[in-house]
Amino acid sequence: MVVAQIIHGGFSQIIAREKNDSNVEIGELLISESSKGKFLLQVVDIVYSSQLSRQNLELISGIRLEDDENIDFLDPSVRNYNLLILKNLLYIKDDKAYTSKFLPSFFSDLRRIKEEDLKFLKGSGDLYLGNVRSGSKILDSDFALPSKKILSHHVLVAAQTGKGKSNLTKTLIERALNNKNFSMLVLDPHDEYFGRSSFGLKDSKYNKNLKYYSTTNITSSLFSKLYFSIKDLKPEHFQGVLNFTEAQSEAVSFFYKKFKEDWIKELLLFDVESKSETNKIFKPETLNVLKRKISGVLNINYDVKNNILEYKNVFTEEKSVLKNILEELESSKIVIIDTSSFSGSLEILIGSIIANKLFDKYKYYKSQGILEEKPVVSIVLEEAPRVLGKNALQSNTNVFEKIAREGRKFNVGLFAITQVPSLIQKEILSNMNTKIILGLEMSVERNAIIESASQDISDLNKTIASLEKGEAIITSSFSKFAVPIKTPLFESVIKKHLEEKEEKNKILENKNFEF
Fold it and tell me: Is 417 helix (H, G, I), strand (E, B) or coil?
């Protein structure tokens, strides 16, 4: 069915007249079809137009308003109409898509897109992101991208509160549980992904590939107690966590070089009033402030009477799950770290310990020529500007910045989530080659995303602002165009799994009963 017809415009912008009562939506995908092939176009704006001059339109409106008379100069469906502003996305021929380098024919009819028009998307990847969406209509066409490529080259999820960031991330991770090409380290500051007391990833039928770490006990075979040894800590782990003065940094380096893995313990137990050689190098106040900073973030108390350290929360003298976490990530598992009981600084520190060790291991694997045998690892970062923001990187660097810049060479990527992409350093934002854009009403945030997108989406400004919950636009270096999608509701996915499990159990019970 024809919904519009091309009447003028150019390569950067095509104008079509909408057929009366077609109700074409902003963001909708339309097809111009000819014997040579198809053109895929997207509605980026809709404006009123009329055969009558503005002066005559004002006259008609005035008569109707003031005299309550229904006056028409011409047939209303011919006289007044909408103009569709269209973006020329792709040229499709023989179920293959190409960058469009020429225009559809003048007066070409436009129709709504069908599932069969999107055959070129089949086989495009193994990581499902959602169903293709045309305006508000959800098509029966899955959209997927190659997991190894998009995750090693970093992903950014940008949306304001209530637009579906968590739902999208949960859905994507749930699909990842059944994919051996990659693993994910999820730093969860809200303890929302596992599903401790509600639907969560624990309820997926693929949960055997899930591991959950927390300091709070839970009865589950997927759970392990979270703890790290202070011997796991190195000075670089504190980058982006604590701001050291030059003198404090020198003291940290001194203790690390002298005591190696015992440097934290020796520093915290060090007597700043003693007449040792160390006190001749560093002022007592420097060491006292340094000890307070480090013991504060690690939540370690010093028992003066017994001259021992009292460990609370996540750190211990010897025990550590760091090795287990790294082995699980290398086994293509999804590892969730519950950081909800930690301060922001401690959460970043925990992530830094794991990310540093992981990054070093993957660098080693590349030097040995065995990197391709390992799964790509993606690190999920909530509130990403805390470690990738301009302010966070102004005075110091951190491992997450290093991964953002170099990680793709070593198959380690970031999956960064934020409400305020404008706070992330521009170079890092540009390095994130796949962006999943949900609703962003603030123009400054839309502009930050548009300027750093892999495709030219400058004319999708209004479309981005109008996105409803769960609706998204994906722009990626590994996609032919910026694809509008709808992500399924995570709870619906899990409920389906539980129903399948229940049905399977009933069948087994019936078989046992018959036997």
Answer: strand
